[in-house]
């Protein structure tokens, strides 16, 4: 049922705007992949290309061994869930879900009885039993989302495509649906691609994350891969919060000004570089070697995390420091920070 | 502690809130009075006059006026013209609205302006254009005569003029509605495997049915009531090419006021039926209309 999706060097322009510039991606059967990127990065265009709602200028998309250019939209058998769900307002829930089956050519069309049974099964699957007669306007956002999913699943799609599936929902419903979708994917095993601009959502939900920027895929990998080993400065900055320090690499040490801040470097690229450090990788220490002196200027609380903003001489932006379980310093206090982990990129 | 402060915050009198949002009572009354006076003077009074004048000479005279052969012929002709012009404009209007709302193409702005053209051109001129094109002295006149085809001063001319004048109604109602709906529903239907015909009849048309209905109501009212353009191409041959509005004018010019108003009352009745139908539907299906995204 599920097929592998192979995307080969896709290029796509809109007017004078290059939306995709040579994108390739292999998706395994049954895999759950997130296309993550800021708006304008081309992620939705890529999703619509896989669906067949856009045509590529160059490159191709394969379902298994089949070139999708040879398939009509109907034969592609895509389950597409639109950002605003695009439920048919004039049809009730049962008619919405049954629409795909009713649209089949007469000889392939199931009987009305079979369609009714299938609709019931799907409503059970998306945990909305008994809502057949409701109209979309009578449903909550989360319910609409699940009806849209049931409608897409009804045609037994080879690939399930979701455009910002949680974009229109409030935070609480979002979290619930996220866990639910992960579990549903585990049960049904559809090859699934979803688009999101929310890095937390992508990292939590997907087997693999493809991060797009300006029409290119910058990195593909598991959540751990992309978060712990970002391939580019863009990914560092896009995934979670990060402090950026201009440094100079000499031998195995990185220097901020004339002060060594990070040692034990194996890279042998010397010269100017950017050091990216996440707030949780800065620790307040007593000893001096490899430490960065600074002044605490502000303290705040972000959910469970306490955060200090530390001004460092020679740095315009204050450093964000997670305090975790450490004793909070006072505002105005002079402290020393040790960098426990960082990502180094040669300055462009 | 925070609980204790809640009730007092929630106990703000609702009246003061509503007053804060609205204008002062004097302004309110004045605005309502002005609107009402205008409606009475310019809309209701003429309408009432039509019916009063129509009934001035009693029921028998009224009946005679609308059942004499020329009046009946005018009524039949008006219905026939509308029966052809309105469906035609429905089909072309839907096609034009669809093209404008769902596709990007060169010359789209030009097409939108062209759709408005009949509204911006005086109906008399639109009528004259057809005479110039198809009349005996017109560009196609000799050819038409050679082939024994009659357009001006005959039914085809009346239909052409009516189609031209009433074309914008359906398209103008549909375009903004279709544009606001976007294409997601159609795309969803296509990915679900629906054929283009099924997409149109099962998704697009039901989505815009109320706008379409309003458009058709307005189009029909104008098609039956059109005077200027039709007057030019008709030739006003009694019993043959006279529509109801033309018939009314002739009667009036011949000092048959009561008869003129009698036939006019039929047209006015049509307007009332249109209005009542529209109100009824809004009242009965208000929720569905709101849900389909039309105010």
UniProtKB/TrEMBL annotation, chain A:
Molecular function via GO: ATP binding
PROSITE patterns with a match to the protein in the record: ABC_TRANSPORTER_1, ABC_TRANSPORTER_2
Pfam families on file: ABC_tran, TOBE_3
Keywords on record: ATP-binding, Cell membrane, Membrane, Nucleotide-binding, Sulfate transport, Translocase, Transport
SUPFAM superfamilies: MOP-like, P-loop containing nucleoside triphosphate hydrolases
Signal peptide span: none
Domain of life: Bacteria
Xref: SMART domains: AAA (SM00382)
Residue ranges annotated for the ABC transporter domain, each copy included: 5-239
InterPro entries on file: AAA+_ATPase, ABC_SmlMolc_Importer, ABC_transporter-like_ATP-bd, ABC_transporter-like_CS, Mo/tungstate-bd_C_term_dom, P-loop_NTPase, Sulph_transpt1, TOBE-like
Entry keyword annotation includes Translocase: yes
Family affiliation: Belongs to the ABC transporter superfamily.
Protein name (record): Sulfate transport system ATP-binding protein
Protein species of origin: Bosea robiniae
From TrEMBL, chain B:
Source domain of life: Bacteria
Protein's membrane topology: Multi-pass membrane protein
Spans through the membrane: 29-56, 77-101, 121-140, 152-171, 212-234, 255-277
Cellular localisation: Cell membrane
PROSITE patterns for this protein: ABC_TM1 (PS50928)
Limits of the ABC transmembrane type-1 domain: 75-278
Pfam family, one: BPD_transp_1
Alphabetical UniProt keywords: Membrane, Sulfate transport, Transmembrane, Transmembrane helix, Transport
Gene3D superfamilies per UniProt: MetI-like
InterPro entries: CysW_permease, MetI-like, MetI-like_sf, Sulph_transpt2
PANTHER family, per the entry: SULFATE TRANSPORT SYSTEM PERMEASE PROTEIN, SULFATE TRANSPORT SYSTEM PERMEASE PROTEIN CYSW
NCBIfam families per record: 3a0106s02, permease_CysW
Subunit structure and binding partners: The complex is composed of two ATP-binding proteins (CysA), two transmembrane proteins (CysT and CysW) and a solute-binding protein (CysP).
Functional description taken from the UniProt entry: Part of the ABC transporter complex CysAWTP (TC 3.A.1.6.1) involved in sulfate/thiosulfate import. Probably responsible for the translocation of the substrate across the membrane.
Name of the protein: Sulfate transport system permease protein
């Amino acid at each position: 049922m599920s097929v592998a999706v192979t995307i080969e060097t896709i290029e796509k322009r809109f007017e004078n705007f290059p939306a995709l510039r040579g994108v390739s991606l292999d998706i395994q059967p049954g895999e759950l992949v997130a296309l993550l990127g800021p708006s304008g990065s081309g992620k939705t265009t890529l999703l619509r290309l896989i669906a067949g709602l856009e045509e590529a200028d160059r490159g191709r998309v394969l379902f298994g061994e089949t070139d999708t250019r040879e398939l009509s939209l109907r034969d592609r058998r895509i389950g597409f869930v639109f950002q605003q769900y695009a439920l048919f307002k004039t049809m009730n829930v049962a008619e919405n879900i049954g629409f795909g089956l009713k649209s089949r050519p007469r000889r392939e069309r199931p009987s009305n009885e079979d369609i009714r049974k299938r609709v019931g099964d799907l409503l059970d699957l998306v945990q909305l039993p008994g809502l057949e007669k409701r109209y979309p306007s009578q449903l909550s956002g989360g319910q609409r989302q699940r009806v849209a999913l049931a409608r897409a699943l009804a045609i037994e799609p080879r690939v399930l495509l979701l455009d910002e599936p949680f974009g229109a929902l409030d935070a609480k419903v979002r979290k619930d649906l996220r866990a639910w979708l992960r579990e549903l994917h585990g049960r049904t095993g559809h090859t699934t691609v979803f688009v999101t601009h929310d890095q937390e959502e992508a990292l939590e939900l997907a087997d693999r994350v493809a991060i797009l920027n300006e029409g290119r895929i910058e990195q593909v990998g598991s959540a751990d891969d992309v978060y712990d080993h970002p391939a580019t400065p863009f990914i560092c900055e896009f995934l979670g919060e990060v402090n950026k320090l201009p440094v100079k690499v000499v031998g195995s040490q990185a220097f901020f000004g004339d002060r060594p801040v990070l040692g034990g470097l194996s890279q042998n690229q010397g010269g100017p570089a950017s050091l990216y450090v996440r707030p949780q990788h800065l620790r307040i220490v007593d000893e001096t070697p490899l430490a960065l002196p600074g002044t605490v200027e502000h303290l705040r609380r972000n959910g469970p995390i306490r955060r200090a903003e530390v001004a460092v001489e020679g740095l315009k932006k204050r450093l964000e420091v997670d305090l975790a379980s450490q004793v909070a310093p006072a505002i105005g206090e002079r402290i020393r920070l040790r960098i426990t982990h960082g990502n180094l990129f040669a300055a462009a | 502690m925070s609980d204790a402060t809640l009730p007092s915050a929630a106990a703000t009198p609702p009246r003061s809130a509503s007053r804060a949002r609205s204008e002062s009572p004097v302004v309110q009354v004045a605005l309502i009075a002005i609107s009402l006076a205008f409606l009475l003077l310019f809309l209701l009074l003429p309408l009432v006059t039509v019916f009063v004048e129509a009934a001035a000479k009693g029921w028998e005279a009224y009946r005679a006026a609308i059942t004499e052969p020329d009046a009946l012929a005018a009524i039949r002709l008006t219905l026939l013209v509308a029966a052809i012009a309105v469906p035609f404009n429905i089909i072309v209007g839907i096609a034009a609205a669809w093209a404008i709302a769902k596709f990007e193409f060169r010359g789209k702005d030009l097409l939108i302006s062209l759709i408005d053209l009949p509204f911006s051109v005086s109906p008399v001129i639109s009528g004259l254009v057809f005479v110039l094109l198809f009349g005996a002295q017109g560009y196609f006149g000799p050819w038409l005569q050679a082939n024994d085809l009659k357009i001006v001063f005959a039914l085809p001319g009346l239909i052409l003029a009516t189609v031209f004048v009433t074309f914008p109604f359906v398209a103008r109602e549909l375009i903004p509605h279709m544009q606001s709906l976007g294409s997601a529903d159609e795309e969803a239907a296509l990915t679900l495997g629906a054929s283009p015909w099924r997409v149109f009849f099962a998704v697009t048309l039901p989505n815009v049915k109320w706008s379409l209905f309003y458009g058709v109501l307005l189009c029909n009212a104008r098609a039956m009531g059109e005077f200027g353009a039709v007057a030019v191409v008709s030739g006003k041959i009694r019993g043959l090419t006279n529509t109801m509005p033309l018939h009314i004018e002739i009667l009036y010019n011949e000092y048959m006021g009561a008869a003129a108003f009698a036939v006019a009352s039929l047209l006015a009745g049509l307007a009332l039926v249109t209005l009542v139908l529209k109100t009824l539907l809004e009242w009965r299906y208000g929720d569905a209309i709101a849900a389909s995204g039309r105010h």
